[in-house]
Design goal:
Blueprint: E1 2-3, E2 9-11, E3 15-22, E4 34-46, E5 84-86, E6 93-97, E7 103-108, E8 114-120, E9 126-129, E10 136-142, E11 148-153
Length: about 150
């Protein structure tokens, strides 16, 4: 089974030319609206199935839910972000604040090269000059907590 981009469950069999669909996966019993052979394929599937990537993830730490209501009975609690970085997108400088702990902040380019680092003190804003960076996407990480995120340089 696989959750599709339309929030329906698709059921694949090993050597079939059809796909079964559960139209309302959150509903119990017959109310789930299971449709056998809902999609007719031009040839049989053999040990394979299409892949539906989830493009609706959102920002790290606030991914959101792909379907509403949730198509699951188990809830996953994500840790809340503790590090604040602004402005993002940035032009000349950024201000970093770690409200709960002292930590080392690292900034990497898309090739994984370390470009900048800063030592953060708990609840003390730290200004970092980014005027020397080219416009683009950068990735940051806090060493102690493992928290990470993205920075856009305009």
């Amino acid at each position: 089974m696989q959750l599709g981009p339309d929030c329906q469950l698709y059921v694949f069999c090993n050597s079939c030319d059809v796909i079964h669909v559960i139209h309302n996966p959150d509903e119990p019993g017959l109310a789930c609206n299971f449709e056998q052979a809902a999609v007719q394929l031009p040839w049989p599937i053999f040990r394979s199935q299409p892949h539906f990537p989830n493009y609706r993830l959102g920002p790290v730490g606030n991914e959101g839910l792909p379907c509403s209501p949730v198509v699951s009975v188990q809830e996953t609690v994500l840790p809340t972000a503790s590090m604040q970085l602004f402005p993002n997108p940035a032009d000349q400088y950024i201000v970093l604040t770690s409200p709960t702990a002292s930590d080392t902040w690292l900034l990497y380019d898309s090739m994984g090269r370390l470009l900048k680092q800063a030592r953060l003190q708990a609840a003390t804003p730290k200004q970092v000059d980014v005027s020397d960076l080219r416009a683009g996407l950068y990735f940051w990480k806090l060493l102690g907590s493992g928290e990470c995120g993205k920075l856009v340089k305009g």
